[in-house]
Amino acid sequence: MKSFISIGAGLAALAVIIGAFGAHALKASLTAYELGIFSTGSDYHFFHALALVLLGIFNKGPKWPGYAFIAGILLFSGSLYAIAILHLPKLGMITPLGGLAFIVGWVGFAMSAHKAK
């Protein structure tokens, strides 16, 4: 589980970098709507990077919830970044898959916590 701690910490650092990039470098080139999409991706990216760290600290069970969080960050946040920056609205079809991966990760985390003594 130590790998989830280090991966989560790295993804959290990346979320801060991406969030700052969006807030400063992209502010002038994106519409308010696009900035909102980008910001949502950045927020969920950061929250789930922290969830991955917590999972690495507390989870003594299966690893699949961590992989679900990673998949969610890539699919959900990644698709929102691409929609906002690259103007690829068709990637919006991928976004719910990332949301589903987040849900699967949280359910797995909850199941692991429930089974822990």
**Which secondary-structure class do the elements indicate?**
mainly alpha
Major β-sheet profile: none
Sheet-strand content, in percent, reads under 5%
Element string (H = helix, E = strand): HHHH
Q: What's the pLDDT, averaged over the residues?
A: 94
Number of domains: 1
Total helical elements: 4
Count of individual beta strands: 0
**Helix percentage:** over 70%
Poorly predicted runs: none
Give the overall form.
elongated
Q: Please state the CA-atom Rg, rounded to the nearest Å.
A: 15 Å
Termini separation comes to 17 Å
Indicate the multimeric state: single chain
Walk me through what this model shows:
The chain has helices spanning 2-24, 32-58, 64-86, 95-115. It has one domain (2-115). The chain is built from four helices and no strands.
